[in-house]
Structure formats: structure tokens, C-alpha cells
Amino acid sequence: MDYRSSESTTTAAGGLGSGVHIPGPRAEDRMPETVTSAVKIVIVGGFGVGKTTMVGSVSEIRPLTTEETMTQAGIGVDDNYGSDTKTATTVAMDFGRIRITDELVLYLFGTPGQERFWFLWNGLFEGALGAVVLIDTRRLEVSFDVIGRLEERGVPFVIANNAFPDGPRYPAEELRSALDLDPQVPIIECDARRRASSRDVLMTLMRYLHEMALHRA
Fold first, then answer.
1. Strands 8-13 and 18-23, how do they pair?
2. Which of 36, 59, 175, 189 has the fewest other C-beta atoms within 10 Å?
3. Phi, psi values for residue 12, rounded to 5°
């Protein structure tokens, strides 16, 4: 199906030959004709740091989410510290899209935060140009393995400190030291609930990737 122009299609159902109407994308979700390039970006972080929230706040299309209700089966398995009010968790991925320019769009993939779902990350990282690591200063330790995985795969990333109201505030250089980051890795404070703030994070990542490309040239 041509995502840009197709509005619907009809197919047989149940071998009965009857036509089943399958709606195409909503008008507001269709890719603009001016777009010539797309970049895959992954939003990663521990459980409850705001990945689903960021994708939902910044996506210009209705985001795809795979949230499921948390049950007692996760007690003793999942680390929910600092996220006691959460009732759902991402079990596969979140997906959204945002235009940076008339020609360039970003495809956003949010990873599941629960460690038992991290085996899905390998597929989500494939083809990713860069990543946003969302952190929560109340639980910095959950970011160590996340950052380590990105460094092992050679995926460039920026750090976005999602400023929770009850989270302690630290200067960027203290965070850099605590997370053992290279000097050039950008650190930006954000509010994942706000579209403008989430967009600033993505623009920071794009500028960082551009600087890296110029440095390699």
C-alpha cells in the first residue's frame, strides 16, 4: 500500500469472498509529499523515566503504544522503585513520528523499560542513527546498563534529564561524572510531558549527530 496516497483497501475475509474495508491512514497521519529522508531515533531508559510520555508528547501522529496493565506477577521481578503510581508498562515498543524540516522526518522508537523485556532492544537498535537516554535523578543507577548497551553498540546518544518534581537537581557536570560520560556527550534538562521540551531534546541529538559527521569528514 502506498502510505502517502492510499485511503483504503478491500480484501476477502474468511474465504467467503465478501469485501472487508480496511481504512488507510488518517489524513493527518499521511507522510507529506515534501519528505525525502527519514531517520530512526531510539528513546531508551529505565522503567518509569518517561519514554512513552516523550514519544506521545512530541509525535505529530497518533503514537503507537504497547502498554499493558501491570500485575502482581511482576512483584519481586520488576524494580518499580520511585514509580509506585504507574499502573501500565511498555512490553514491546512505542512509535511516533515528527518532522524536523519539510524534507526530514524522525521515526521515534521508545524501548521497554522493564529489564525482562530488554531482549527486544537489539531489534529496535537496528538502523538507529542515534538515541536519547532519559534519566531520572531519583534513580540514576538504572541508567548505567542502558548507557553501557549503547556504548557497546556504538550508538551515539544524548542524555535528557526528565525533571520530576521531587527529583534532586544536579549540575550537568556532576551528572556527567556520576554517569561516567565522555566530555562531548550533550546533557539537557527536559520535561517529557511538554512537546516543545521534547522537541528541544531531539534537536540537541540532531545537532550532535551533525557535529559528529562533520568531525569524521
1. antiparallel
2. 36
3. -75, 145
Instruction: Name the more confident of 74 and 95.
Output: 95
What are φ and ψ of residue 22, in 5° steps?
-110, 110
* 83 contacts: CB under 8 Å, gap ≥ 6: 47, 48
Joined together, the cell numbers standing for residue 211 give 557535529
Beta carbons within 10 angstroms of residue 176's beta carbon: 16
Work out the pLDDT band at 20, boundaries 50, 70, 90. Answer: low
pLDDT digits 0-9 by tens, 67-88: 545 444 444 445 555 555 545 5
Percent of the chain with pLDDT over 70: 69
